[in-house]
Amino acid sequence: DSGVTQTPKHLITATGQRVTLRCSPRSGDLSVYWYQQSLDQGLQFLIQYYNGEERAKGNILERFSAQQFPDLHSELNLSSLELGDSALYFCASSPPVDRGYEQYFGPGTRLTVT
Amino acid sequence: AQKITQTQPGMFVQEKEAVTLDCTYDTSDQSYGLFWYKQPSSGEMIFLIYQGSYDEQNATEGRYSLNFQKARKSANLVISASQLGDSAMYFCAMREAFYNQGGKLIFGQGTELSVKP
How far is B60 from chain A (nearest CA, A)? Predict the structure, then answer.
């Protein structure tokens, strides 16, 4: 158990819909990262938050957005869903760099768009 | 641009033998970190081992060791005494410079390891 929690574990929804994925980082970790894993694209970085502020952005679609709340949990919002958005979405957290460099992953949310 | 290459899509190893999974990387940063993660069929990503670019000694964690050759830009994972539970997908990853609390992970395509009894 990495200490990172993600809900829900599975999500099945229809095209055009909107979903919210939730992540709680490990205690003491200030950074939250979102990654997408799909068969054709592999593991890709989406976005990073550090202590409530957006810190880095990857190839995140405009239909996707995220935020990190004062209690440090994070949500990834996916809207106008398409079949190609079906993937495993991971959240990871890491401590400030003066305390460690590892990123610990949650169990993932498997999204299926039908 | 930073890149991770894993050239072995699949590997087989006999139980109790050692196996080396290859990883090469490309970066222009002087400060970076290299990681290996294990992804069993259940899907979770399990952190195995970390090597910093300035670390002079190869990292070890139990049965896992990282063979770091900076000049060749390689960071191979060595698993000693393979066990059936080691059957999984293994990903090599690089974290870019850590300044400004940043540092996304860039992943390779993975190597699927199968351990035979």
Answer: 15
pLDDT tens digit string along B53-92?
A: 999 899 999 999 999 999 999 999 999 999 999 999 999 9
Residues of A in contact with B102 (CB under 8 A): 48, 50, 55-56
pLDDT digits (tens, 9 = 90+) for A3-62: 999 999 999 999 999 999 999 999 999 999 999 999 888 999 999 999 999 999 998 999
Q: Give A104's contacts in chain B (Cβ within 8 Å).
A: 47
Q: Any chain A CB within 8 A of the CB of B64? A: no
Q: For residue B102, is pLDDT > 80?
A: no
What's the confidence (pLDDT) of residue B24? 98
All residues of chain B having their beta carbon less than 8 Å from the beta carbon of residue A2 are 44, 46-47
Measured over all CA atoms, what is the biggest interatomic distance in chain B, rounded to whole angstroms?
47
Q: How far apart are CA B94 and CA B97, in angstroms?
A: 10
Q: Do B37 and A107 touch (CB under 8 A)?
A: no
